[in-house]
Fold:
Amino acid sequence: MLDLHGYGPRLLEGAGVTITLALLALALAIVLGLITASAKMSRSWLAHRIATFYTTVIRGVPDLVLMMLLFFGGQIGVNVITDFLYYEFDIDIFININAFVAGVVTIGLIFGAYMGETFRGAFMAVDQGQVEAGKAYGMSDALVFRRIRFPLMMRHALPGLSNNWMVLLKTTALVSVIGLSDMVRVAAEASKATREPFVFMMTVAVIYLLIASVSEWIFARLQKRYNIGYGEAD
Amino acid sequence: MEALINRLEALLAENSIFTLQTLSYYGEGLSTTVQLVFISLLIGLVAAVPLAIGRGSKRRFIKWPIFAYTYVFRGTPLLIQLYLIYYGVVFVDGIQETWLWVLLKEPFVPALVAFTLNTAAYTTEIFHGAIKATPKGEIEAARAYGMSPALTLRRIVLPSAFRRALPAYGNEVIFMLHASAIASVVTIMDLTGAARFVYARFYAPFDAFLFVAAIYLCLTFAILYLFRYLEKKLLAHLQPMT
Amino acid sequence: MTRLMPSNTMKKVLSLSILSLAVAATSAQARDYDEIRIGVDVPYEPMEYRTPDGELTGFDIDLGNALCAEIGIQCEWVVQGWDGIIPGLMARKYDAIMSSMTINDERREQVLFSEPYFTPPSAWFAPATSELEETTEASLEDLTIGVQRGTLQDNYVTDMYGDVADVNRYATADDMVLDMEAERLDILFLDYPVGKATLLDSNNRNYKVIGDMITEPKAYFGDGFGIAFRQRDEALAEKFNDALESLEEDGTYDEIHQRYFGEE
Structure:
């Protein structure tokens, strides 16, 4: 039988860290992705430029390097501000860029850039006629977005979204390198202590595959929901 | 050359971090990264062609093992695959006494194996998708000419699939370049390894990591333009006439 | 119902992400130090490591707790990877570092040190079967040397032998020991007590020390281990220095020393 040498509970905890981190990063990425997509579609020259710069730079640098830059460098950057407050105004706050925050922010930033592309493509695929129809009904812009644009866009965005999520999930493994006790780090520690890397690495691999399979199932259900009214015609 | 080095040295005398010595770390790191990525991509590419053909086979005992392989390697983080191979081989009984150990002892080879297996899995799926998308008409035309299935595959299906796969493969190359940063975790002094060394020595995260980020950015652009050029040349017949 | 789904999920997602940012910023630190937090990098047996059930222990931990008791303040240990340990102090993630940190000039520019509380030498460790008798540029040529990244041992080996030998740098000491056992490394260089605990004492394979204990040149090996504080926290450092003195006088220090290093 599978013998985890008493590391079972810590592995489970690590899996919890991995999933929480991935979900928070996904949330951040979706928000950033929507902002980026709107910026890229906006008529403002500046917004367009900034969004392009963001997606180009983020997609050109390895995740691990960005993560270390933020984890090690971000702290020093923040310190400059808090030290200034401390010495000038005697305000002693401290902002802690720990491995978890660095992980969420970095992964969110990276996948925000990819989500931006996904959402842009999806928004552009929305049938303008339906938007016009909504306006003709007297819906406000916000209502048109909520009732028409967003649901229609999601139908086109879901495959890309699902793809991004799968990659994001695997990217969370990198936080183990900057010291966060996600399941990869726990497994690495356990492998070293027990000298049984196969057992622990395989276990974690299976958990990743499980999470991926469950996500696939959820995305398939979502796709079905957003495809309502399309299935027959296709 | 001598004069160039002297001038460079004078320039570098201004700062304490980017000395000629640390720059040489970055230089060696660059060469290690390029070697790792290039070799693993090359082997992965060669292996992916038969795997992709097998993946589309009607025989289950060929199709399913390949599917299982790509599913596992695409579904789990590369970092785990690297750990498994780097730390795992050590526990194969008596491996230290075989000739293989000469290769596996260095961190480079285990990393290369992990990267190759990983990229081969992704590339297999990319090619598989491209082969599946071959227009039926092309195959029927080949049959009508009396080509055998093998010849059809070689002359018609594969060449057109390669072209279709080009954009996706370009992404895979960039992905591998970025993924290779984890080589530093198993002590390889690749580009990221060099940056981590410089950071730890001088406590200078911005200098160390921004510099290396810029190098990666340049490499990414180089790959991007290479593939754009290839697409333009090889996919010219698919462009709309103007 | 179905129509409302997306906006509801969006709201949840938004509030979650705002929450995560709020967690990132915590404010208000006590200034008069009723309780302080001490940063430490584990495992580094016997100086600081975890028991199998996750409890922190080791020479630094016991001494640190004794010092805090002597001063009469609450102490909490914060685990932090070595390569982020000084930035973490600056960031006020903790108020002191007690983690086998050698006092040297490079670090003095960044932090304020207590008086040295322990002065271990560094040493070279190799398998018992190794034919090495001394460590010179010639004898180390083409060998693979293991060090922990960013330590004074790393600096020393890189500068002295970086050109002739391969230097493998590790994040933690146990990664290094594992690769030593795997025979990936020919020799490694680290604090003597740590090498003694992890390689000489607790290992069924045989290892030995090559050559002499190394404490010179001072530019690398400094003046022993010190507790690091932020430059401005002079009062706190003073309290620790006084406490250290009293523990040395009343025999507590010797008792803790005995616990981890035995008779020597």
Notes: Chain C has a mean pLDDT of 82. The two ends of chain C are 76 Å apart (CA to CA). Chain C has two domains: 35-119+223-261, 122-221.
